[in-house]
Amino acid sequence: MVERRGAPLARDAMAYVLAGGRGSRLWELTDVRAKPAVYFGGKARIIDFALSNALNSGIRRIGVATQYKAHSLIRHLQRGWNFFRPERNESFDILPASQRMEEYGWYSGTADAVYQNLDVIESYAPEFMVILAGDHVYKMDYELMLQQHVDSGADVTVGCLEVPRMDATAFGVMHVDEADRIIAFFEKPADPPGIPAQPELALASMGIYVFRTSFLADLLRRDAANPESKHDFGGDIIPYVVEHGNAVAHRFAASCVRSELEQKAYWRDVGTIDAYWEANIDLTDVIPELDIYDRAWPLWTYSEITPPAKFVHDFEGRRGSAISSLVAGGCIISGSALHRSLIFTGVRAHSYSSISEAVVMPYCEIGRGAQLCKVVVDSHVKIPAGLIVGEDPVADAQRFHRTEQGVVLITQPMIDRLAV
């Protein structure tokens, strides 16, 4: 990884997190919350990764644009991210879509979500803007990307992942020259361009962009005046700079943050139930690919005041136990067996129940004798006594939402329908 050097540029930067998306591929998990507000890792929300990266990078001005079903997200931000102090030249602004301009209401695109708040941004006068997606899981030092932006003289620097070339068909793809200058941009191409000297790989956009604020403001005003534009960074802003300016790719490997236990750069889009389940369950590995215990790069979040997790009863078949599992505070595992599961705050698991390869969100109750395998359970769900999920694929699909890979999503409305 590139070493930091000189005075930090992050102190002159503002991070702007785009957190308004629904994330419909997460099915019912986003019926009541935006994708960035979905729980992750036992205590956190997905958006906490982008916000923690900004804070750990040294950025002290942050704005979060919200839109779709934002109450859960806004409540989390107010509770967990309210420690910024204006007297230290710090700020944290939550920016819901609102009728801030005469002809505008909802944000019509990612670029419009920034444009509508230019007055807020310019009131702080940051020299640089770091535009972030709020729905990915990764650890990254944005200071290193800022340094490359200044050193290269770029108009925009685009964060990019190196991925197998044909895997890039689901991304925006950067076609670059030998110096990583972007010479063309393709949105979800059928035949992605390879990287010079690495033709088997392609550079996929991470939805992370660095601009000088003055340059970005001019771009956004020009784009807002264009009736043909969809007012989107990937669809409009970045292609315009590629054609008319100097756009440079920043490779994630150059600024990803890894502890001694992490062997390779980690980035995940947990935008499907399968991907979400897998990323959470992977945390139960002895040495997981993502180290959330890294104290040098902490994952900041709202931390509820809870008592320690409790395990009770010690009889054959009724033993409170957890193997290869993460259990958050406030949980009571009462004569229940956990295996390779991730249990969020305040879960109650009653006697003789069995929970395996499960992601159980906060304040659920697992009834006596229930058996759950390979499930994602939404928050505040009450699992009836004796319910069995994960043994009969046909029955699971009839009662709940089952993926092609066999992960079963359970929500309270689904449970309520069982009693009808």
Automatic annotation (TrEMBL):
One GO term (biological process): glycogen biosynthetic process
Entry protein name: Glucose-1-phosphate adenylyltransferase
Binding site for alpha-D-glucose 1-phosphate: Y107, G172, E187, K188, S205
Entry-linked Pfam families: Hexapep_GlmU, NTP_transferase
Catalysed reactions, semicolon-separated: alpha-D-glucose 1-phosphate + ATP + H(+) = ADP-alpha-D-glucose + diphosphate
Alphabetic keyword roster: ATP-binding, Carbohydrate metabolism, Glycogen biosynthesis, Glycogen metabolism, Nucleotide-binding, Nucleotidyltransferase, Transferase
CDD domains attached to this UniProt entry: ADP_Glucose_PP, LbH_G1P_AT_C
HAMAP family: GlgC (MF_00624)
Complex and partners: Homotetramer.
GO MF, one annotated term: glucose-1-phosphate adenylyltransferase activity
Chain ranges of the Nucleotidyl transferase domain: 16-284
Annotated pathway: Glycan biosynthesis; glycogen biosynthesis
EC number(s) per entry: 2.7.7.27
